[in-house]
Design goal:
By secondary structure, the protein is mainly α. The protein is about 80% helix and about 0% strand. The chain has a domain of about 80 residues. Helix 4 runs antiparallel to helix 5 and helix 8 runs antiparallel to helix 9. Keywords: Membrane, Transmembrane, Transmembrane helix. This is DUF2339 domain-containing protein.
Length: about 300
């Protein structure tokens, strides 16, 4: 089998990605096992303490005196609380599922036809997005948030898969424009999803995903247009900062500040490279808009 040419190079790249994913999955699985051991040890210690207290009460020995704090000199300090360990386990579980989905997406292209690929990913994404609805009804909010995070990864993978297989001819679109459309559509879906499920995670993620949309739409346009789109993105973050709540407001403030700083740096460098006064004035217009926006916010 010849190992030269573009196909051989792509095969080598795929093997490298798969090797990295397997290593990451092994590390996450090992950490998951450690956390499970910590949880089991904490449960066993609590059970032993409860049994000892009951035995002392039966024997007539007081377990403690009023005003005297209980002390256990020989008891080891708990490094991780059960609640924190549970949250870490949920995060690790979501990461493992994401790694498995990425491996499936990368490896299965040669095994399934176009219809099979689209059907499997679409069905799996739908099931994952419906799962939090059931979990919330049963009071498993943390697990529902984890599944919602996994659903975000699947939506982005669906976008990658659609372009890879040429679904509805999207492979003919410009790469930056298609990426902008994918991120924008995913952000819109997450906004609706957050309103329906009342989960806290999807809305801030939607704010983050929406930040690159306008800059990516500039494509091969001039640098002035790129700066203008960065300023427009920061302007769209302002209503979220002023009227948003909780994590959405904080995320919009951080993202908008980062985009505004990037617009200032890129715009200033671009304006300093002008060859004429008229060109400099045109290039500084987005910066003037950014200054007005800053004055409005403050």
């Amino acid at each position: 089998m010849p190992l030269q040419g573009p196909a051989a190079h792509e095969l080598w790249q795929v093997d490298q990605v798969l090797a990295g994913l397997r290593d990451q999955q092994a590390r996450l699985q090992a950490r998951r096992t450690e956390l499970l051991d910590i949880l089991r040890a904490g449960t066993a210690a609590q059970g032993a303490a409860g049994t000892g207290a009951a035995h002392q009460g039966t024997a007539g020995t007081p377990a403690s005196h009023p005003g005297t704090p209980a002390s256990h000199p020989g008891a080891p300090a708990r490094e991780v609380s059960p609640g924190a360990a549970k949250n870490v386990l949920l995060i690790l579980g979501g990461l493992l599922l994401t790694v498995a989905a990425v491996v499936f997406t990368v490896v299965s292209w040669g095994l399934l036809g176009i219809g099979g690929r689209a059907a499997v990913l679409a069905a799996f994404t739908t099931l994952v997005m419906l799962a939090p609805v059931v979990l919330i009804r049963r009071g498993l909010t943390a697990t529902a948030e984890t599944m919602a995070g996994f659903a975000v990864a699947l939506l982005l993978l669906d976008g990658y898969a659609a372009r890879r297989v040429g679904f509805l001819g999207v492979d003919a679109l410009d790469a930056s424009h298609y990426t902008a459309g994918t991120l924008g559509l995913t952000a819109l879906v997450l906004v609706v999803y957050a309103r329906v499920t009342r989960l806290r995670g999807p809305a801030p993620v939607a704010v983050v995903l929406a930040q690159p949309v306008l800059p990516l739409l500039t494509g091969d346009w001039s640098m002035t247009w790129l700066v203008a789109m960065l300023v427009a993105t920061a302007a769209l973050d302002v209503p979220l900062v002023r009227r948003g709540r909780g994590a959405v407001r904080v995320t919009a403030a951080l993202a908008g500040s980062g985009v505004a700083i990037l617009a200032l740096l890129v715009g200033a460098a671009h304006a300093l490279g002008s060859s004429s006064v008229g060109e400099a004035l045109a290039r500084t217009m987005p910066l003037v808009a950014l200054a007005l926006l800053g004055g409005f916010v403050t």
